[in-house]
Amino acid sequence: MSSVTSNIESVLNEERVFPPPEDFSRNAGIKSEEEYERLRAEAHDSPETFWARMAEEIHWFKKWDTVLEWNLPHAKWFVGGKTNISYNCLDRHLPTWRRNKAAIIWEGEPGEQRTLTYQQLHTEVCRFANVLKRAGIERGDRVALYLPLIPELAIAMLACARLGATHSVIFGGFSSTALIDRINDAGCKLVVTADGGWRRGSEVKLKAAVDEALKQTPTVKGCIVVRRTGARVSMQMGRDYWWHELMETVDSNCAAEELDSEHPLYILYTSGTTGKPKGILHTTAGYLLQCHLTCKWVFDLKDEDIYWCTADIGWVTGHSYVVYGPLSNGTTVLMYEGAPNYPEPDRFWQIIERHRVNIFYTAPTAIRAFIKWGEHWPLKHDLSSLRLLGTVGEPINPEAWMWYREIIGKARCPIVDTWWQTETGAIMISPVPGATPTKPGSATKPLPGIEVDVMTRSGKTVGPNEGGYLVIKRPWPSMVRTIWGDDERYRKQYWSEIEGVYFAGDGARCDKDGYFWIMGRVDDVINVSGHRLGTAEVESALVSHEAVAESAVVARPDELKGSAIVAFVTLEGTHKASDDLKEELRRHVAKEIGALARPDEIRFTDQLPKTRSGKIMRRLLREIATSGSIAGDVTTLEDFSVLEKLRTEEE
Ligand code: WT7
């Protein structure tokens, strides 16, 4: 255990190490730890020269004059350069054999399939860009995209980027209220939506939500509607147009605009478990460069690969690793519209088998659901095409990591646990699969060019294995540029907590080998008898018990200890809730971590409240544990019935 002088105590002790499989390293882009450390050293010693060398990999209409202008907290990368991300994702592949390669293989939830080659995707994007132009969209205008996970979403993003219009993708699961806030905050001129989308067999009525929202969004002049489900929708004359009708009347050529490196590419509102959503602004060249490089390094992309990132395009993972990163690398991207358990809990494994997916990137929350549904579902399928597995979004507990490795990867596929944020734009800490030995539960080391540290509140680097705040010490090309319309909040939130560095808001520790262990959001940290514990570690200990499927740990104010630990626990299929089991779990945590972390209270529940991106909303659990009711904002909650159940289970 770490010393009491640290800020956040780390109690997880994981000793297993898995070196990259030899045959994987032999065929990898980066083949050894030495090769990777050389890159890291080069980037560390002369970052600007390093990034300039890397930037040769993307297409420029005009090269930059200055690599970086850094006036804390504002960075400008590749100043004076001109490029276009849509050009880099499409046009660049057309003079090569990739022209006829599948860019997108899409599967709808009801089972339809569509494939678009790079040439076909290029044509669709050009046509939609012409549609946008005709609708009066110009460079710098904001366009809201509220669509299901269908190819038209990627087409619309690439069409906006082609013209220099700034897109704001709003996740299709959000309500009309969330839509109003986001459309108004960005001042969007146009909304692109669909009649509806499919989720777990029922129709999500997107157009109806847009109709509701557009009553309160004065900047919106028009609405373009994709026909997806075929449901009847109301179309307002002079405002609403069908996508397919507009696409028939335009030319299929549209040159990509030559845009400044710092041209605003998109705004994306963070899912955030607390507070008002923030419009994270990303710009063009630096974002493109880092999506491109990290995709290549971390997923070790090969031209033959079928790559599947299961994230919705409505989140940053979908922006960077479904659309921009893989397409700029000329990769074949698999997209699936629907739920993992529709019609049955083996839909993902079916898709992997059917399309022979090679690279699979998903979230710990999904992995925990797979564990809960039972391993007989994946075991029914031939997953031998897989060669690499990835995770993102939360700390993954070692138990889930081992299950992923053994049941899905058959102990053959390396796992890349990738730490990053909406604000970082691209992966920051991750194994490079042919080079980095992995440890279950650690995102391992920062990528080349990324200077990460763990500090105290006062900005002092902590010692090995001491917990603290995760910070980034130098600007990086794909970093957030500001919070849309609120630069002061940008400065405060990220650059004022600890002087001179970017404050990620996560707790972490770095072990003696330089491996980072993310301990969860610092607002999820609990303070017991003056010791601050990361909730993720207590949760890991609980999940390591055979009866536990998932858990969320929160603090309840306690006169004696400062905080008492309350653990919400869902059980694996065959296990039954009982007082004996509660006692056993409390003992189990005490044994795994120490008496300090023993939960004061265990509550069994069928489900945990999550955001639509799958993050557990500990804030709500905290309220339930403390006062028995919820007063705060719940608009990002995925399933409201969970709250009702939690309340009644309490009685
Ligand atoms: C927060 C960012 C980045 C795409 C998805 C979420 C947590 C993310 C990991 C990981 C531990 C992780 C952090 C981070 N997180 N990846 N590999 N290990 N924690 O994007 O909604 O901006 O959330 O997700 O707490 O700060 P986001």
Detailed description of the structure:
The protein is an alpha/beta fold. The protein has a domain at 525-649: 2-Layer Sandwich (GMP Synthetase, Chain A, domain 3), CATH 3.30.300.30. The chain has an 8-stranded mixed beta sheet with strand order 12-11-8-6-7-14-15-23, with helices on both faces. A 7-stranded mixed beta sheet has the order 5-4-17-16-18-19-20, sandwiched between helices. Strand 4 and strand 5 form a beta hairpin. The longest helix is centred in the first third of the chain and has 17 residues, at 118-134. The chain is globular. Mean pLDDT is 92; it is low at 1-6. It binds 5'-O-[(S)-butoxy(hydroxy)phosphoryl]adenosine.
SSE order and pairing:
Blueprint: H1 22-27, H2 33-45, H3 47-55, E1 66-71, E2 74-79, E3 82-83, H4 85-89, E4 102-107, E5 113-117, H5 118-134, E6 142-146, H6 151-163, E7 166-169, H7 176-186, E8 190-194, E9 197-199, E10 202-204, H8 206-213, E11 222-226, E12 240-242, H9 243-248, E13 259-260, E14 264-269, E15 279-283, H10 285-299, E16 306-309, H11 316-328, E17 332-336, H12 347-355, E18 359-362, H13 364-373, H14 376-379, E19 388-391, H15 398-408, E20 415-417, E21 452-455, E22 468-472, E23 482-483, H16 487-495, E24 502-510, E25 516-521, E26 525-528, E27 531-534, H17 535-543, E28 548-558, E29 562-571, H18 579-592, E30 601-604, H19 618-627, H20 641-650
Parallel strand pairs: 4-17, 6-7, 6-8, 7-14, 8-11, 11-12, 16-17, 16-18, 18-19, 19-20, 29-30
Antiparallel strand pairs: 1-2, 3-13, 4-5, 9-10, 14-15, 15-23, 21-22, 22-24, 24-25, 26-27, 28-29
Helix pairs in contact: 2-3, 5-6, 7-8, 10-11, 13-15
Bound molecules: 5'-O-[(S)-butoxy(hydroxy)phosphoryl]adenosine.
5'-O-[(S)-butoxy(hydroxy)phosphoryl]adenosine is lined by residues 270-271, 316-317, 392-395, 417-422, 443, 504-506, 518, 521, 613.
